[in-house]
Amino acid sequence: MDTKIFRISKDFERGKSLLDMSKERLEIIGYIPKDKAYKIIEDYYEIVKELLTAIMYIEGYKTLSHVSLIAYFKEHHSELTENQVQIVDRLRKHRNGIVYYGKKVTSAYLENNEDEIKLIIKELVNVIEKELEN
Question: N or C: which end of the chain has fewer CB within 10 A?
């Protein structure tokens, strides 16, 4: 396993809290004007990141690396397709471009990928809810 991934005690409460925050963030996206695609993309990534982090906490792992976060999920879960994992990684790259370099993402990118991003989020929520039931 990646040395940037650490074993910790399982933390169901923190995982549930991250799930709740991501659901709130998802509701807020609906209020962001579509012409602010960069902000919507940034928020979608934050939601996905929170959900992946929740999964790791529930399973007893932690990382500070966003790349390792995605790699952990890909290695331990099969709920997302390879294409969906690539979309998550592209979201990460777009978010970094927005936050660190002021690059705005076009609304065309959002229009072409939003439905798949929503499916990814739904699948990650399902993974968390199943793990919290156990």
Answer: C
CATH classification of 9-133, choosing from 2.40.40.20, 2.40.30.20, 1.20.120.330, 3.30.310.50? 1.20.120.330
Packing angle, helices 37-59 and 82-101, rounded to 10: 120
Helix (H/G/I), strand (E/B), else coil: 34: coil
Helix (H) / strand (E) element for 87: namely helix 82-101
Q: Within 10 Å of residue 17's Cβ, how many Cβ atoms?
A: 14
Give pLDDT, residue 15.
98
pLDDT digits (tens, 9 = 90+) for 19-59: 999 999 999 999 999 999 999 999 999 999 999 999 999 99
The model's pTM: 0.94
Q: Which two tokens stand for residue 39?
A: 């902000």
- Residue where the block lists tokens 């991003």: 117
Beta strands per DSSP E along the chain: 5-7, 61-63
- 54's tokens: 């929740």
How big is the chain, counted in residues?
A: 134
